[in-house]
Design goal:
CATH superfamily of the largest domain in chain A: Winged helix-like DNA-binding domain superfamily/Winged helix DNA-binding domain
Number of helices of chain A: 6
Bound molecules: FE2/S2 (inorganic) cluster
CATH topology of the largest domain in chain A: Arc Repressor Mutant, subunit A
Order of helices and strands of chain A: HHHEEHHH
Strand order of the largest sheet of chain A: 1-2
Shape of chain A: elongated
Strand content of chain A: under 5%
Number of strands of chain A: 2
Oligomer: homodimer
Number of domains of chain A: 2
CATH architecture of the largest domain in chain A: Orthogonal Bundle
Radius of gyration of chain A: 19 Å
Structural class of chain A: mainly alpha
Largest interface: A-B, 51 and 51 residues
Chain lengths: ~160, ~160
DNA sequence: GAAAATCCTACTGCGCAAGTATGAATTTGA
DNA sequence: TCAAATTCATACTTGCGCAGTAGGATTTTC
């Protein structure tokens, strides 16, 4: 039941880009992201490259380059991103919707474990395939505002700007 | 989001012992279990040994030995068994109830990923910490009976015995 | 043209999952 | 009492995938 570091970092980066974007800073550099999240730069670079190839972010090269979102935030669901990086959500393949594989069980239809894990898979998918980046970003922003915390990656000049109307 | 083979095999064995027990055959040998579930004998042996050390099953050595349940089926929940073999249910440690560890996130309180994963963890735990072996065994038996299938590991002499009153 | 960024590919280290292998200890029945 | 059948204990193997590093190529801006 584990999310890989790779996936964790990727999602954290995605959320950060989303937040920054929402605050009027649509593009972030890998080095900024890595600094804020305290992640290895080159590793994060790789991950973003993968997210780019899958169409979640786009990049600008060269000086003042960086990464920005390639689709609307409310169209980015977490499930597919996690599947991309970590593979199926299901705890065992025989209950995976997206990449089924049969197991050695003699009777899949009457397998108790399978029933149980199907339940688990559905519970996981129900959450991850429904929540969008937009929702998470919004909730996070609201929380930050309520607690009067300023998002770290903003330029000093942009701090202390009211987030909500 | 993966259940290890070790854990899968362990749970399958547990369920089988539960079913057999319910049908009046409280003790099964490793070789029987391995044959029915098509698993490597020695590997399963190891796993059962671990389950024994944790108090889920007990064993009898020597000829006609084998493994049987060490506690009431309705006291065996799946969550703890999985935690024993595979570790925490939570996708990331910062949302684990049983083995928390902080991550590199600069602000755990306002971390969007953490919120999301907390939701996932709770959904998983809600299922796995509630279902008991007794329930899974019962459901399985009902299904088998409805479909008129005879559990494989019964002795020939015991087949065709009505399962339900 | 220099600096600053992304892009690309290869490589590494190493820990762990998934078993194998070997033999000792225990129980039963002949 | 001995042989067979079983669990118990420990050590070993093998391969793979995670979590990065390393180094340089390419693109963009000033
Ligand atoms: S575990 Fe997949 S069918 Fe039993
Ligand atoms: S992922 Fe653990 S606090 Fe952000």
């Amino acid at each position: 039941m584990n999310l890989s570091k790779r996936c964790e970092y990727g999602l954290r980066a995605l959320i950060d880009i989303g937040i920054a974007s929402e605050l009027g800073r649509p593009r972030l550099q890998v080095s900024e992201l890595a600094a804020k999240e305290k992640l290895p730069v080159k590793f994060l670079e790789q991950i973003l490259s993968q997210l780019k190839a899958a169409g979640y972010v786009k990049s600008k090269r060269g000086k003042f380059g960086g990464y920005s979102l390639a689709k609307r935030m409310d169209r980015i669901k977490f499930g597919p991103v996690i599947r991309l990086i970590d593979g199926p959500l299901a705890p065992i393949r025989c209950v995976s919707e997206t990449s089924y594989a049969c197991c050695t069980c003699p009777d899949e239809v009457h397998c108790g474990l399978r029933m149980l894990m199907l339940d688990v898979r559905n519970a996981i998918a129900k959450i991850l395939d429904r929540y969008t980046l937009a929702e998470i970003v919004e909730i996070t922003l609201r929380k930050l505002h309520r607690d009067k915390v300023t998002p770290l990656f903003l330029q000093p000049s942009m701090r202390f700007v009211s987030i909500l109307p």
